[in-house]
User: What shape does this take?
Amino acid sequence: MRRVPDDLEVRDAPARSRYELRDGDRLVGFTEYQRRGDVLVLPHTVIMEHRRGRGYATRLIRDTLDDLRGKGLRVVPECSFVADFIAENPDYADMVGPAPETSAADGATSP
Assistant: This one.
């Protein structure tokens, strides 16, 4: 497996509700989020097809979680890759929060 270049940048793109992994101005991948107070639900992660299988998703998720930890936020890992990453890296387990309750304003209704 080739090593992920050190000069890639992971940054929050709040207007798109996602963290992006970028190589200069080129998008390499992203992980989407839905913010609910101090908890971010992470439903989906994408790495561009020609970059898959080389550690890019691991870099994206590690840097995303490090940034969120620095901001005092917790996560709900709905994305299976994020859930597996946290299971394999127990230093991040303390970041897993309870699933936020949805409200009518979120488009869901209570029974």
The longest helix spans residues 56-70. Confidence is low (pLDDT under 50) at residues 103-111. The longest strand covers residues 26-36.
